[in-house]
Amino acid sequence: MNSLSFRATYGVMSALAMLLLMSPSSAQQQNVAPAAQQAPAVSQPAAVPAQAAPAMQAPAPSAAVPSAPAPAVSESGAAAPADVGGKPLKSTGMHELSPWSMFMSADILVKVVMIGLALASLATWTIFIAKMIELSLVQRGLRAALGRIGDARSLAEAQFALGAKDSVLASLLAAAMREARLSAGISSDAGIKERAASSFAEIVRAEARRIRLGMGVLATIGATSPFIGLFGTVWGIMNSFIGISKSQTTNLAVVAPGIAEALLATAFGLAAAIPAVIIYNHFSRVTKGYLELVGRASGAAARLLSRDLDRTHGAVLPRAAE
User: Which candidate among 139, 171, 277, 298 keeps its CA 20 to 30 Å from the CA of 292?
Assistant: First the structure.
């Protein structure tokens, strides 16, 4: 019994010793196994982006879908509009407020006002070019004609010096010759000179009307263009305020285009009026100088007529004395 109990006790103690020796290794194996199982789980997520990164950086042309770019943000913080392809549009504020775009988007009445003022400006510059050429030619021609008849002693000699040229001086000489011919046999020189002066005055007035042709148009354009442009401005601003009341907003981006279109009509009016006034004043001075030359021509014709009358009476008086 004692030997059996001793053996049993020895066996139990041996088994406990074996269990104690085997427990640390099993614990290490249990700790290593979860670590080995967790290692792929930790490293796999890092490997997946590494494999997916090339595919995201260089997508296949056939399978890749282009991503929509983020809208561009302006300095004010608002997103800039994008076109159909997704690219941000460039700022078109200056283009939208250009004179042509403002004209095209203006009201029909404002357009009519602008077109009328543009035609008035075209008429102003046309009259300016035409009158400059005309006044230069007539002034040069009249000065040359006065120089030719400066040494003439009679109406016939002056007409021969001028030739067949059509000018105001030729008309004055022809009127003096006609009056002398119609008054032949009349001894009153005062009556002949008075009738000739009346004919000269009519010719001078006709020449003044002819040389001032177009000046009235310049005066009308210069006086009325600002008010016509102001009418277009008032109409455009009225439409702008109506649009503001309909849109229920006072944003400057909404109000500015309409007001700019309205002010463009005033700019057209000033562009037509200012040159018209300047050109009218210039031609008034030039025309006054030309009419002074016409007055000199009228005086030259009157002096030649007076000489012819004195010669006629001087030739008659000696015969009567004989």
Answer: 277
Structure tokens of 158? Answer: 């002056």
Length of the chain: 322
The residues pairing with 79 across neighbouring beta strands, listed in sequence order, are 73
Give pLDDT tens digits for 125-168: 999 999 999 999 999 999 999 998 888 888 888 988 888 777 89
Sign of CA dihedral 22, 27, 28, 29: positive
Place of tokens 């109506």: 242
Are the C-beta atoms of 214 and 131 separated by less than 8 Å? yes
Q: Does residue 39 fall inside a structural domain?
A: no
77, with CB counted inside 10 A (0-12, 13-18, 19+), is: exposed
Q: What is the pTM of this model?
A: 0.62
Considering only CA atoms, which of 116, 112, 127 is closest in space to residue 276? 127
Q: Which domain holds residue 266?
A: 107-321
- What share of residues in the chain are helix, strand, coil (percent, to 5)? 80, 0, 20
User: 88 forms bridges with which residues in the sheet?
Assistant: 82
**How many domains is the chain built from?**
1
Write the CA distances from 193 to 171, 200, 292, 309, integer angstroms. Answer: 16, 10, 21, 9
Domain assignment present for residue 75? The answer is no
